[in-house]
Fold each of these.
Amino acid sequence: MSGLELIPLIVSSLGTTVFAANALYLGTAALLYGGLALGASALSKALAPKPTVPKPEDGTYNLKQSVPSLPIVLGRVKKASDYVFLEEVNGNAYHILVPAGHRINRFVQHFLHDEAVTLSGSVVVSPAHFFPKNKSYVSIESRLGAPAETAYGDVVAAFPTIWTSNHRGDGLASVKMICKTAKADDVMKVYPNQMPEHSSVLEGSPDIYDPRIDAYTYTTNLALFRLWHLTSPYGGKLSLSDMYLPDWERAADVCDRLIVNRFGGVERLYHGGFWFRANNDPADVGRTIDEAGELVVYERADGTVGVHGGAYYAPSIILTRNEITAFSLDANVDPAVTVLAVRGRFTDPEDLYNTNDAAIYGDPYIGEDTQRTVTVDNVSVQSHNHMQRMQKLKYIRRNGVRVSLTAHYDIDADPSYERFIRVQYGPKLADAIIEITAKPVISLKEMTITLSGIVVPEDLYVFNSAVEEGIPGSSVVPMPRGEVPVPENFGVLIQTEVVSGGASAAYALATWGHVSDALTYELEWERVTTSTGPQTAVSTSGADQVRSAYLADGVQYRFRLRAWSSGASSEWTDYLTRTATADPNPPSPVSGANVIVPGAGQASFGWTPPNSLNYAGVRIYSNTTNSFAGSTLLATEYGPPNIPDGRVITGLSAGTKYGFIEAFNTSNIPAAPIATGAFTVT
């Protein structure tokens, strides 16, 4: 056959190679006619490997490199960004990130690591560890990527020499994040995962053309994605005038059809979302969309590009023995080719847009120990029901009967533009629907057409979700971050011990309820009055008590406790107030307590201190009745034990009074008061 006899009239997404897909972008016939003129250089460029469409996990981390290729977002996705600015000044880190290299529809949800955050204005107020005690540590602001954007004013103010008002980011969706430095003790509490890693759920380009309404809009319709891709600089580089729009309208309608999923909810047949980079292989991006949307893209006789949507079209062409000149049938029963089950992997919005496994369609083990499975893995599919339908189609096509035939070519009944034809070639194939899976080849010399396909049922696209969808395995559910628990049953006891010289010293012993051996506890104490600043002591791991340093005798202290784990602390407990007492044992009472009146307004008290090593002094009281209760402190006198002592009190009012002398120890613990008897002040 000559070159003219090999003009391909249909390009099927089911078996398109990189070069064949590129051929469509250039114009199939033109490429064949001018194939020699292209030369080896063009051929090598067409076959040169390019980066593949990113998996959802590829968008987990923000990228830092000099000039990254532009990220393109279609539909709703969760992804990180490319850094364009990261600097620090005055303890604040300024991040400017670009999640999409074009205008987007909106930001749906911001994440720091995998924690969804709540904003009040631009301030992150939830999760609470980013906003402790109503103090702001992280703020987030965003731009949608308008043709003329506005620079981030606070970044311009902080870095006027390197970031000016001209750094607007026109046409780039961007996020500005500012992270403030936390105190050393609070760093792991505020930033438990170190510096926040920003990502977001966003709705991609709002500039997708919909020929049904003749307008540009945001959509998740896969047929409209493909139309956009073929006419974009990152795909086919064609124009809308190169597209046969009635086909694309019908395909978009097919994608919008409703189906009931296994939960009884309603969703669209072929909707999804994904992102890629401008330097990704256009053929790879196109195949991703075609597979997910069940699309077959082809070139029409008038040179425009049409599409078959993912639906069954009743055949308008019937080939019988009268038209068929050559026929072969492959029952397709070879275990090396057929499968028992189909696995699926899709992007699950319910699992933070991670890749998850779908339920297995079929049974991988039927009478044998070896798995015979194939996997459908498509990043743009975001529904389990959608993936299960793709798995069913893969199962039918992989196990279907193969047919190849040559028939008389009738230009009025050309199957080149059909996805399904009917073949009646009994007894091998009495009456069957054939889905064309390869490019029909027309011989103008012989006036024949040769094609191949798969025998499929008329209900190929019928799907009973309640029976066929199955239940996927459980996803890993991220647990919400737990705070370090505040200590419970916190208590403080004042203890004493003998130190050098035989004296006693007081210290505090803190106790609490046991939670985990992994926790350590920090005890803090300070004087209630005339504080010299707080002091701390840290327990060992697994211990349920810790003691303070020695405390000043007779001084009142306040104590509180907090727990630590992996560099993060709990909140403090409420304060407990205790008085330090080094010697809780009182001395013996004084003896020989007496009083005389040496002059007007005076009283001279005398006593003999006890022979007690812990004696520190006495307190002298008086009352108008012979009762210690309600008496008035007149003076405090310090002195040594077992040596007679005395004190003259002046300025007393006239009248009959009763005196009392009370010994006390170095910790101010009193002995029983001793009465002096009545005396009359003149």
Amino acid sequence: MNRIDYGIAILLVLLSVAGRAQDAGWIIESKPIDPNKYYGVTVANGMVGLVSSAEPLKVKDVILNGVYDYYQRGRVSNILKTFNHINMNLDVDGQRIGAAGIRNYRQVLDMKKAELTTTFDVGEKLSIKHTIMALQHLPYTAMAIVEIKAKRAVRVTPMSVIEAPNHLTDVHNLYSEIDRPHVMIPLLTSVGKSPSGKHTVAVSNSIIFQEPHGQEPDLIHEDWDYTMHLMKFNKDLKAGETYSFSVVASATSTEHYQDPLNEAERLTIFARLEGTQRLLQRHETAWEEKWKSDIVVDGDIQAQKDIRFALYHLYSFARAGTAYSLSPMGLSGLGYNGHVFWDTELWMYPPLLVLQPEVAKSLLEYRYQRLEAAKQNAFSHGYRGAMFPWESSDGGNEDTPVWALTGPFQHHITGCVGWAFWKYYQVTKDRVWLRERGYPVLKEVADFWASRVERKGAGRYEINNVIGANEWQENIDNNAFTNGMAITALRYATQAAKELGLTPDADWEQVASNIPILKFPDGTTKENAAYNGVDIKQADVNLLAYPLQLITDRAQVEKDLRYYEPRMSPQGPAMGNSVLATLYSRLGNPEKAYELFVRTYKPNEVPPFGVLAETAGGTNPYFATGAGGMLQAVIFGFGGLSITDAGILQDAKPLPAKWKSVQLKGVGVEKKNYIVRQGN
């Protein structure tokens, strides 16, 4: 081999290695699977969430966004777990396969395509590949692709199954075949009522065969009972033969359609006639478009995967063009009843605002459409304006369980909503939206705070009897974060009025300038009037420096960090450390920031995929709030971005030693790229 050939060979090897490393940044592979310690990963499209299972050909749950009803859980509503409409069974030579009879069980999530692939062997007879996705371009439809490779001659009986969870009532199972000259469309359908009868929910699925019309296997429908029915077919395979088919499945409800039964069937027919390849291509193209807004870390492949995993979940759990928001657990299950908290506005919303403004707009539309309910809530508590509920579901009324005092007293959420609305305008400069959506909310938020304060003289417009970000201290006075958020929201309302050429209420600035931020004798910001140094659940005071930027003096920021960091309880949720990481990065201390960044999520990972629990050692994944906080440490800390009246600006700071660069791609409405390099 001459030198030129040798050089080309080396180059090809290096390119191959680089390509594998790049692909690795998109792949999450399950660790060895223990069914007793299995916390599934979710594939979702902002409307339907499919939660993976340790059982072959199954998903654990199907979550339908925007649909709430009462499950007898805490006497409050819960997001709906609907029919499991994409499960399958498989008989091999007349024997049903299960977890006990398979080998080499492996699950891999391709985040770039939002597809979960499970592979396994059935003894010495078959190799199975099973890929599921919630189709990104069809919000109510999912697809599973099955590939069966025979190792020896065998008869397989695949079954598409619909199962009803116990809480659904008045369930009816339907089966039909629509025959056309060039196609036969089988439809397996179920319809039922949500627990209280408030909603009708419906699902339908169909099989896409690879054979031409007239040569498809004969289908058999079996109606076992009200909770389960299926359609199945038999197929004889020769040794070495590979056979594939797909299942498309749609889920709807009266939250989305007046006639969910017929619409579920129509959507399934549409998907069935689109065909597997067209569906796959459009799904992957839609995700390719989403990933034009991405975070790329050079030099730390594990951090790259972890950051993208967090981003993948936020991209999966919310959707542009809707009026649905995000719960702390997204579409991964029934955690926190699927309710909407401050977790949305303060934690998950900022990364989406920067990378997916149209998705962020949907989260704000959710609040806008519930403004009247918030005004009624303020009225019932003796205040003016709008008082947004601590836990919100469908109607926007307070949906916190009665035993949790956060419902009546965690008022800072109203400021968080106002804060988020102004941030959207700062990023987009959409004046029409500000006039029609933003200012109406900001005005009512400001009126609430002006009525909420207790006016006790100059510098003493107090906000008493609240619960702050640190929920472990209840019914406290002059909480730092609550007061700081009230000041911020009042001033943002004033800015919004002036931006629209309106005269703001002069009382808003009068109130804002007289709300106190308490201090200890040594100048450290005091969390609340009664605070005495006990451990705290999460950051509170530090939120005044970021994201509120009410405290900008470096010495003060550092003083508050030194005091509160050692008081952060290890039993607290992930978000607190992400705030500290962001602040240390902005202060130019990248190694301390990196230490805290890792602490925001690594202790919270659970097997086999490393999905995030709320707390270290917790078991309630996926905690999308923590993902939002972790991403903020990257975007607004290491990435140096800030959302200001001048738009998105960058002030790059030093990176951790192991990171060569951080690139923020497709930022804002102009889809700009920002990069920070080591040594800049």
Amino acid sequence: MRFKPHVSSLALLTAMLATALPTAAQQTTLDVLRITAAGLTPFEEKEIGRSYTVIDGDQIQLSGTPYVADVLRQVPGFAVSRTGSPGGLTQVRVRGAEGNHVLVLIDGVPAGDTSNGEFDFARLQVANIERIEILRGPQSAFWGSNASGGVVNIVTKSADEPGLHGSLAGELGTDGTKMTSGSLAYDQDNFAASGSLTLRHTDGFNEALAGNELDGASHIDANARFKAELTPSLTLDGTIRYAKLDGKTDSQTWPSGVVLDSDDKTTFDELFGSLGLGWVSEDGIWFQNARVSAGTVERQFISPGSVFANTGDRQKVSYQVGRHFATPGFLDSTHTLTLGYDLVRETFQQLGSPTIQERTANSFIGEYRGTYLDQVYLTAALRHDFNDRFADHTTYSVSGAWQIPDTGTRIHASAGTGSTNPTFFELYGFSPTFVPNPNLQPETGFGWDIGVEQSVLDGLVVLDATYFNQTRENLIATAGSSVVNVAGTSTRQGVELSATANFFNGFTAGVTYTYLDAFKADGTREIRRPQHSGAINLAYKLEEIPLTVHADVVLTGENLDAYAGTKHTLPAYAVVNGGLNYQVSEQVEVYGRVHNLFDTKYQEVYGYNTQGRTFYAGARAKF
């Protein structure tokens, strides 16, 4: 199991974790993990100076969490809010940023909705995931607009064993929950391919605080990928993803904010794919990568007597060329220089409008990476965007990490700028209660962080602490029935802490805590960004029998929300989940889990009910 928050240190937890230490610590050996979302080319973990977290597939599978949004609740700096049912709008905010400041990639392909610039996590269930890579802070120098707050990259499973292999899984639960999934993977000689299909349905619960109508959801997630070595130097790869969501929701009355039972529905249909070609010279010094990706999202919000719908497309062409070189006479250093080009075209069309809105950006990127004395790692990137609808813009990023020899101490820091373009809906959309503003300008920002990671007992325990500070200019905010760029500077600052332990006696633990101050330019606190949040996850694998016991607690402090201009305080809460996994054989595992064990009553969004205590049981088999 690997849950490694790179930005975290919780000295307060040292004593607690020490009570679980084995009498004789042993050296921990982990495979070198290369993070694909960290730059133009993959990074090893030790090379990254920016704040990151990697959650691997074993951790996700053990928890049994059905939706990716619920996995992200345990990540430092993350705030998740869902409007009630599994089909309701689910937003993720990183370090106090807005939902459309977080770029979501699936196998490296941008998956956000072009209409509102963000990814609705209600669309994404846990399905065939190998790992989730998370970067906090401005990443626009690498990924452009919509990455000014961070990046979440979902990496699906690839074939990792020779021959044909597969898996089947099924689950039943309260609230009429049913899940079925299957996967296949083939790896032979110079070709590998994998794919999966996951179906989930739940009758749900009543998201209105009164009444008895159930608000459920049905999900389909299908993905596939392949990789072919055409020659020893040339590799072709591709990905494809299809997803569909049908969810029932309730409406909120104006201006009281009371949620009433209704026949509202939400549907999403999305299709994304990519094709890439990579080349490495025989001596490994030169490399080139080219990739073409495309995606489309259709969504509808259906209420009795009305339909609000739009479609959006995105096409992207990327190219990088780079060279590795060494200067052993100067601090025994190695270097990588990479130049890149991105072409992105986005479109948007709203139901009832004959016009297809579109915009194009051409971007040039340069990246430098250096290693000095095998202990200091530096990265710098510069990006210039040529926008056809907005003023051209330049962003940058610098970061560094120092692994102090023979100490287990690692210092990391980063700084950078970000930019977020106005959404298509803000510029051109319409509804009975909204008037677009075609004069909006991009939001801009600057952020920096610095932290210390401390490894003890040969890496069995890792503590980490990071301070972050971010400012935003030209923030887009609601003004009456429209939106405007707000003058002044909005601020976000805070501390992210965590401790992780991974022992050979079968016990693993992780604790995270985030303190956040997020204020608008007028000095008022931002909504749906709790000042205090954290999580605890524990697992113990029994030696005598192949049984694993696990539990997690998600803690959220007092929070603010607003509706119709009125602010509301949402009380703090803690949600406890747990489960058992029993390994029947090498091929078959059965499990059971409970969500919200103590049936805690709480709200994430004002007016909306949340799910009470639920039970699930299932089985997985592989061949």
Amino acid sequence: MNDNSILALYLLSFVVAVLASYLALMLAARVSRARSGQALAWLIGGGITMGTGIWSMHFIGMLAFYLPIKVSYSFKETLLSWLVAIVVSCFALFLVKGTRRNRHNLVLGGIIIGAGLSAMNCVGMAAIKVGPGLRYDPALFVASVAVTIVGAIVALWLAFRLRGGDAWHTRLTRFSAAIIMGLAIMGMQFTNMAASRFSTPSLSAFNDGMDHNWLAFSVAGLSLTILAFILLLSFIDIRSRRYADALRLSLKTVHSKLAYLGTHDALTSLPNRSLVNKKITEIIDAAEGKAILFAVLHINIDRLKTVNESLGRAAGDQLLNAFVLRIRQTLRPGDMLARLSGDDFVVLAVVGQVEDAAGIAENLIEILGRPLHVPSHEIHVTASIGISLFPNNGTTAESLLATSDIAMSHVKQHGRNNYHFFTSEMHARNRDRINLESGLRPALRENEFRMFYQPKVDIRSGRIVGLEGLLRWKHPEYGLVSPTRFIPLAEESGLIVAIGDWVMEAACQQSRQWQDKGLMPDIIPIAINLSAHQFLQRDLVDSTIAVLKRHAIPPASLILELTEGSLMGNPENAIDVLRELTRLGIHVSIDDFGTGYSSLSYLRRFPLSEIKIDRSFVQSLENNLEDRAIVRAIVTLAHSLQLTVVAEGVTKVEQLRFLRQIGCDQYQGFLFSEPVPADIISGMLASQ
């Protein structure tokens, strides 16, 4: 064998050593992270592959070991050395799989692995057939074992350090460590081989072993093929695991997002009702046996729906976020702000006394009353705040949220832009309110509504010239219920249109009955109140014509009363609808005139027939000069527009006398008659 061949075998041995070392480090990472079943497969397969690589490096190195004689090898010892390498490799991977790493384990494992590798070297060297046998230099042999053990300890330490991942810097470090380990392994082998001493060989032994010439390339080729194949499998496993990790991370992200959305509001990122319930429950549990006062402030944005309808949903969302930012500026550390629904928020605060909760509410009212800015708009909003206290108003999250909501509703019903603490009286009123609201639909179905009528009297002649139909509800529990109690509920529940249709039907039917009885020789129109929701119905004109035809009464027998707010919501559309109604002969009246914010230019364009002066101006006519001036101006304005003027709420002779002096046309009120059933009106009509 020439020098070039020896050098090539040494280089090949080094390449195999580096590849085996790199593969060993990679397999250590696989085994340490794999699950139990997979770990066993990687450990056995990895042990075979790693052992084969180490053994082949050792065997190729032996083939490069130059002796001045022809050398052959024993198949039995060669196979045994390969099996020793596999067993040692499996043991090494088993040690790396463990999670505990300390000096004791490293040293003990290194000694066992080093001894095993030395045994592999000895058995491999014993496979060389050179006659009388092989002996070792004691000092060099001990040195080779020591080098092997130290190398094994270093290899174990590197395997532990580099088993944690497949990042590029980890792979680079692992490759560098593999080069060092390859050099160390070759150093172990060369030290062991340097300790070998051969006797003069017997020529008769030269023909007993495997041929040296093709053995080096066969072992190297087979080993490199196995190492390359396992390396390829490892890279495929890395790619698969990365894909699985990415998928797992994606699923984890989605799960975290869903979990977050389950407890937080998507628009404002505030805690939602679910998290509020949990927080209140935690505070209540922590307060057990302690004197803790805890406040729940229910905040509602007044008229947010108007902003959404006029400026769009995007502007409404921007307003909400600005609203949230404004609230946060007033809160103390430890207070919690959450969003319950579209325009409902809640603040949770532990307070020392009731006045502290009031102070929080006052600060909120003050700061939320300032203008809020969204792109191209400055918006003024207000807030209604209801406050409930633990333990005074409830001892559960559900009861505290319910009582704060009741208190907030009380504020909205009494002017908005304020705060109020919950009281037991509110609870009773709220219970009645719920009972009334839930009974509206059955009331329509069971015909529980009744029509009362109040005469409209000509001021000069004292004769009944018109009637106003007023709705009452004969409730099975509460008796006769005023419309002021249930009409707002009907508007909120969406039943106001159906109730309005019932009123129109009942009034027209009653007019037909009075005309059939001859009680209305001249047309005496019946006025009914039309809600804003009913006025906005597209089929208002058609449905009104249908009712008139159904009861065969002339259009002049019906007056539709509207508030200024109903007309001014969309004045241009209102003008078109009113013109169509008046063209058919139906009269239209503005109810409660003077309490709204009508534009006089629109008032001039509305095709109206009469104006009704609100009772708030009539009640103090006898002694309030300002109200007298207002009523006088209304009468003058109406007459200039050729409109009939009706004064509501006349209860005193002095009021009637003043109205007669300024030329008011009609009046209605308790001075003549309160609203009464149809049969009493029949008597009044018959007697005049």
